[in-house]
Fold GTPase HflX.
Amino acid sequence: MKAIGVIRRSRRDGVSREEFEELLRSAGYEVLAILEQNREEHPRYNIGKGKLEELKELVKELKPDKVIFANRLTPSQAYNLWKELRVEVIDRWQLVLEIFEKRAHSKEAKLQVELASLQYEVPLVKEAIRRIKLGDRAGFKGMGEYQTQQYLKHIRYRMGKIRKELERVKADREVKRKRREEVGFILIALAGYTNAGKSTLLNALAGEEIEARNQMFTTLDTTTRRFKLGGKRVLVTDTVGFIDGLPPFIVEAFHSTLEEIVKADIILLVLDASEPWTEMRRKFLASLGVLRELKALDKPIIVVLNKRDLTSEEDIRDKAEIMKALAEERGIGSNVVSISAKLGQLEELYGTLEEVILTLPKYKAFEITVDEPDKVPRVMALINSIGEILSVEYGEKTRIRAYVQTGMIKELTRLGVRIERLNQPHEGEGLEDSE
């Protein structure tokens, strides 16, 4: 498929040409030309009339299969452009959906992509119906008024059916998630801009080989794997990548997948540290925008600067310092680490994760008293897998002071131990019995 790309930039809409071209390549298009314009949006054509005439000449000369806008087009603009160019015209979000269709493998991912596509079609069909009623023969996909109205009804019916199916998937996932918490797993979600290296990081953490390509939106299916961190049970989940200005209809369609971020104990926000700082900043703020929309900014967030092997030590230090200041300014703390997922250089991440885990609300300080000496090794092994031992006092009765996940207290009591809640220790202080 051959395409001509169009980018219009304004004070409110700073489109990245490099990212747009990468999207086109990821969708499998041969890019014949990129037309650019700096101006505010034209209400009828999005671009100005002079630039439209230039585009018409390009279309006649190069004969593309599609003209693809980097900007969002209104249904009216898409129709007006088609009428002038007589070639299919789509915008950035239809392009993203085309990539999603190529990448979706699981039943859930396919349903989510179909729902997003149908949501996008609704305003286009409504515009076609409006124009037919005005006497403009603009039937959607060549259909007449009756056919177009029937198609709109079909879209709405199908959207309702997909939502019900996704609700069932969501319910099943919630049951699994609760079970994982009951057996003491820490839940970590990988989030961030598309192609930042999240799947490579998942492989490095879990010691697996999930597909990880240097392409946008390689991951649409939720992938969860386990690994151990200092004896603790941890589950890490890879999620669909973000993109600047991710529209509400895509967020809604992929809500059951993105919910893994909302339900996680810790979020790893992954960025490509080999990119220029301006690009890193833009993608960081875009990712925060999606997390804000998901209402996930109240969770512990560790900013992970990946691909440090592709830049210098000095560059990575400077970016880490600036990112810490920016993260604090945006109210998500200053947990910033640099790694190379590809080379397995994760020491800094492991250390920060161990620190952050013990600050989670699910961790409280307890004193566990074990009356039977033969039970001590088993109790200590369980505590190490779900918390952290702070001190052990051996004697006729063994007293263990430790951070333990509150959801695992029942599991400990089944071993016949006595458990007493303690005040959380402050830095530099010991534990004190609560009243």
